[in-house]
Amino acid sequence: MIYKKRSQSVLMKKLEVLVARLPLNHDRRQEIEAYLARHTAGYQGEVTTDYYFQFLNERSYILLHDIRLPFKDTYFQMDTLILTATFILIIEVKNIAGSLTFDHEHNQVIRTCGLKEDVFHDPVLQVERQKRQLHDWLEKMKFPTPPIHTLVVLSREKMIIKNDFKQRLSKKVIRAALLPTKIEELMKKETQPFCTESDLKKLARKFVKEHVPYCPDVLRMFTIAPHEILPGVSCLACSAKPMIRLHARWQCTACGIKSHTAHSKALYEYTLLFGKWIDNKSARNFLKIESRDATRRILQKYSQTQKGSGNFIEYELSHLES
């Protein structure tokens, strides 16, 4: 039973819009593209891993994806949580290309790709830290603390896995295809219920309620000034911009397609980069519209809440396509 589905993060959506609206020659573009590529690879690895949950009896567990919870003065995030009546399982998914050498003694993973080597933090240590944080969080929420197990799942099928010759590879590190078997083993091992089915669903709802999405200001993150963002309505067919507005319709100057609602996507992109509040002047500049009245009608259509008066009215954008 899935209580929280996996979906593309707000951060990824923001990064995609940022890349699409930066000049091709921007000096930070390559850095941002690389950052987005890492997050995209991680998300794809998680989606690949999700395939294997279909081999389990969905009545025996509750599944929650991408849970981020407050912890003291910060937050901790878990790729996947599996709740059962007898235990909780935290799954950390890694999708890394190349050959991986695990060095648990020094808490590191060495990735070899061609002649290049990179060092990553040991994901086993990472998921064990999440275990301690989850234990403390459950105590704070006054829920019973069940056995909490952890797994690091490597989603890339052709990944070469090694371990330091002096050590054994942790049994917590597995390939995605082994995930159903590992979960079934835990179900056979842990047989003492820590709560009722009703309480387990209550706990799942609490996780969803307390979840806080990671929603950073990507302009500040990469020190991008607002004037560096390319304005204009993008064509829904060929992505060229800006479309021009003629007789209450948008027309692409590249492919000729026409649309009555192309501005909706542009306004949604505005909210990702600048926030939900917008005034008429900012909307005209971003959509590249000259008419104040036409812009006002557009903003009123997508706003239920307004503040200010006269020329200083701001509109809270909502009901936009994501």
Q: If you had to describe this structure to a student in words, what would you say it looks like?
A:
By secondary structure, this protein is of the alpha/beta class. It has 2 domains: 209 residues, no CATH class; 87 residues, no CATH class. The strands form 4 sheets. It has a 6-stranded mixed β-sheet with strand order 1-2-3-4-8-10. Strands 7-6-5-9 form a 4-stranded mixed β-sheet. The radius of gyration is 24 Å and the shape is globular. The relative contact order is 0.12.
Strand content: 25-35%
User: Roughly how many Å is the radius of gyration?
Assistant: 24 Å
* Topology order in helix (H) and strand (E) letters: EHHEEEEEEHEEEHHHEEEHEHHEE
Structural class: alpha/beta
Strand order of the largest sheet: 1-2-3-4-8-10
What is the total tally of β strands? 16
Number of DSSP helices? 9
Rounded to the nearest angstrom, the distance between the terminal CA atoms is 26 Å
Most strands sheet: 6 strands, mixed
Looking at the structure, what is the overall shape? globular
Q: Averaged pLDDT, please?
A: 91
Low-pLDDT regions: none
Percent helix range: 25-40%
Q: How many distinct domains?
A: 2
